[in-house]
Amino acid sequence: MPTTFNKLTVAIALASTALIASQAAASGFQVREQSAKTLANALSNAAAGAEDASFMAYNPAAIGNIDGNQVAGGVAYIEADFELQDASASNALTSYGENQSGQGGETAVVPSFAAKTQLNDRFDLGLAIYAPYGLSTKYDQEWIGRYHAVETELTTIDFQPTLNYRASERLNLAVGLRAQYADATLSNSLDLASIGASQASGAEAAFLATQAGQADGFAEVTGDDWGYGYTLGALFQVTDRTRLGASYRSEIDLTLEGDARFSSDNPVGQDVLADTQDADTFTNGGGAAELTTPANLNLGVYHQLTDRLALMANAEWTEWSSFDELTVEFEDSTPDSTTTENWDDTWAFSVGANYALTPQWLLRAGLGLDESPIPSAEYRTPRVPDNDRRWATLGATWMPTPELGVTAGYMHVFANDADIDQDGNKEENATKGSLNGTYEIEADVFALSVDYRF
After folding, report:
1. Which among 36, 197, 230, 271 is most buried, taking Cβ atoms within 10 Å?
2. How many whole angstroms from its chain centre is CA 109?
3. What start and end residues bound the annotated signal peptide (predicted)?
């Protein structure tokens, strides 16, 4: 192993994986559950559905399809399940285990809110508040991959004021500003005995080598920031039964500034940590990690086939390639460092249908597939157990009055098994060692929303 282990190495190991974490219900670290109606249709109505004010999170021009004033609110419950099986891990001094497993799935609650008002015959004004990205994962602190990840929390929230222009009876054009707040907390264990052995000599180094994998420390990094972007949308009513939609959401650059903290409750680990801190490494302090939330494009079509049956389809492109590296800077004299991520742009496709069972009940269903931005097993980490996935959805909307709608939706996510191949010889894995295995991934999402027009 390398002979130099410092605060920069550890913080990069933490930040470069945690801040790109994957939500099992969507590829990358994207969250799409801003509406129970879109979820119940597998997101096939995201660009062209325009059914209530919440759709402005997908296409800001959606509010032009709604006369008068409306409020909409909802919540999604995400239960992600991913488990690393047949795992092995080691460093230059010891094996951390063979044929083990680790469960990292967590649950998350994602709320959203939207409101719009019609200013006059030409203009609509709206506000959407929603979470476009996020993750919650937590492994046991003793699991085999603990030096790569223990806990990851990434939360974002967008505030999107929107202005829609009714250019004609058939065309709506809209623009929205996006103020995005992001907050991250992430942690992993440290093999302090191996770190100390690489810096010591003689009998001390030999003793510490025997404690490798047993004298752990713990590192936690936190950070937050505000960033700003925009969204554009168009909605075109081709015929009385067919509608086209398109929207674009810009990338947002963030610099997550916060603190790094290091500790150990093991006597040997405490001694090593004290020695490294005397040498001005593994000291508690501040830092910053740059993060870009990517641009994306939605294209959709909605067709009322009969008075009861509507069909819809959507294609979403996400510019994950903008996230090609993560730069970490520190307040002290530690030099900056860059970690290459090498993510790919992705497409997600979905189709769906609505069936009006009665004037009060609308049944919903859909199917979708989503590409993963992670190009190969060497770029997959325990914080990002991401792979290509498929969706199947069901739901219903109940309208007790023409002004009030209540929608429930359910999505099951089927993901391909995902191999992980973290090479302990890579510089960024110097303090973490190797980790290999196969992830099994699936997720369930339940959503409930209410909309009211007045």
Report:
1. 36
2. 13
3. 1-26
